[in-house]
Design brief:
Elements lengths: L2 H5 L5 E2 L6 E2 L4 E3 L44 H9 L3 E14 L2 E15 L5 E4 L11 E5 L5 E10 L4 E5 L21 E6 L9 E15 L5 E8 L11 E3 L5 E8 L7 E5 H14 L9 E5 H4 L16 E6 L11 E5 L2 E2 L3 H8 L7 E8 L2 E8 L8 H4 L4 H4 L4 H10 L7
Antiparallel strand pairs: 1-11, 2-14, 3-5, 4-5, 4-7, 5-6, 6-9, 7-8, 8-9, 10-11, 10-13, 11-12, 12-15, 13-14, 14-15, 16-17, 17-18, 18-19, 18-20, 20-21
Length: 419
């Protein structure tokens, strides 16, 4: 490992009508080769920022660090602080394809990005970057061009998160910020590998354009609680870093809105933090699954004539459909608390559930028919293994209940979340 690294150098539909596509930069190699593409790197003029403190243990806040000479831009200083912590990820996965001549096997080369989050080599990225776990080989490419093989430690397709590990020490771990402190209009910088490793460590900048966004992808996966940014994010940026003006990691770049320019999405780092901590401590993480399809109540209020009942509550997560016959939840329940922790929207529910693993229990507060109830729930399903629900129908459809409710569920299943 060079001293330089040690010193720090992708049917798409989303809730407001935009087309969504998880970005991964996969190039399929069966009998043909891949092609390269070029893109322009955008760097916006910046404001002054503070110099990086030498002691990484110093606490940071979401304020810019200022340039000592007043000449360097915010982007420049953020890059100097964090660019060596962002890596390229190259994967090889074996696949089987149906052709005119029958099934043929071949390989998919995936290209994405990741961020080093611990000095001993844990790297966070997207699950789709590592083919949702169906990967044969993973290579990490550092900013100085050096390559190292990595192993998959954990991934969860429902969260679109993965953690891989390289053998190393004194790696330039990126500093984790506080995504809850970010507001619309705050400036951000994105670092990643758009369109492949030929453009590794590309820097773009912009602002936070929206918070708590809900997006569905052509893979059938839905995500919520995302931060929206106009910093350019393209294929290959998946898993890369979204940084605040202090150079701290506040999001994992994960998606863009179809062919639209300037509409990208990132997973807030505060959702990822419990996963990082648990994986580092135990080497694994079992995120839990409720077996429901839900949506933030405040979002549903924007859909004309959808909420026709008096729910008795203004904030929470509305249960659109239930997939588990033994579930204590019912359609039209509104989840408001998990063990006393308030749940105002899908993002809050997802973060609350990350505090539990399979086998744990919790008391979940709901509103049903206008009255508050408390349900004792034992989490027995790992959300990283929810294949049994991928083709399941909600209970209302299974029992052929009210046809109007069925129509609503069918219409909304294309973009509502599976926590």
């Amino acid at each position: 490992m060079s001293d330089k690294r040690k010193s720090g150098s992708s049917f798409a539909h989303f809730a407001s009508g935009l087309l969504g596509a998880i970005i991964g930069g996969a190039l399929v190699f069966f009998l043909v080769g891949g092609s390269n593409a070029n893109t322009n790197t955008e760097v916006s003029p910046g404001q002054e920022v503070q110099e990086r403190a030498d002691n990484k243990d110093n606490k940071k806040n979401n304020t810019s660090i200022s340039s000592s000479n007043g000449e360097e831009s915010m982007e420049s200083l953020v890059v100097k602080k964090s660019i060596d912590s962002v890596v390229g990820i190259n994967t090889i996965s074996e696949v089987v394809k149906d052709t005119f001549f029958g099934q043929q096997s071949g390989y998919v080369e995936g290209i994405g990005s990741g961020s080093i989050v611990t000095e001993d080599g844990f790297i966070v990225t997207n699950s789709h970057v590592v083919s949702d776990g169906n990967v044969n080989k993973i290579n990490v490419v550092y900013s100085d061009g050096e390559t190292q093989e990595a192993k998959l430690v954990w991934n969860d397709q429902s969260l679109d998160l993965a953690i891989i590990k390289v053998d190393g020490k004194d790696l330039p771990a990126i500093e984790l910020g506080d995504s809850d402190e970010m507001g619309v209009g705050d400036r951000v910088v994105a670092i990643g590998n758009p369109l492949g490793l030929e453009l590794q460590s590309t820097v773009t900048s912009g602002i936070i354009s929206g918070l708590n966004r809900t997006v569905s992808f052509n893979t059938g996966v839905s995500m919520d609680g995302l931060m929206q940014t106009d910093a350019a994010i393209n294929s290959g940026n998946s898993g890369g870093a979204l940084l605040n003006t202090n150079g701290d990691l506040i999001g994992i770049n994960t998606a863009k809105a179809g062919n639209s320019d300037g509409i990208g999405f990132a997973i807030p780092i505060n959702i990822v933090k419990p996963v990082i901590e648990k994986v580092r401590e135990t080497g694994e993480f079992s995120s839990v699954y409720l077996g429901i399809t839900g949506q933030s109540l405040d979002y549903l209020k924007q859909i004309p004539n959808f909420l026709t009942d008096d729910l008795g509550i203004e904030e929470g997560v509305y249960v659109v459909s239930v997939f588990d016959k033994e579930s204590p939840f019912q359609e039209k329940d509104v989840i408001t608390k998990v063990d006393g922790i308030e749940v105002k929207d899908m993002s809050a529910l997802r973060k609350a559930l990350l505090n539990y693993t399979v086998g744990d229990s919790a008391k979940i507060t709901i509103y049903r028919d206008g009255k508050e109830e408390k349900l004792n729930v034992t989490f027995n399903i790992d959300s990283s293994n929810v294949d049994e629900y991928s083709n399941a129908k909600p209970q209302s459809e299974q029992s052929n209940e009210d046809s109007k409710d069925n129509e609503d569920s069918e219409e909304l299943d294309s973009f509502f979340q599976l926590p």
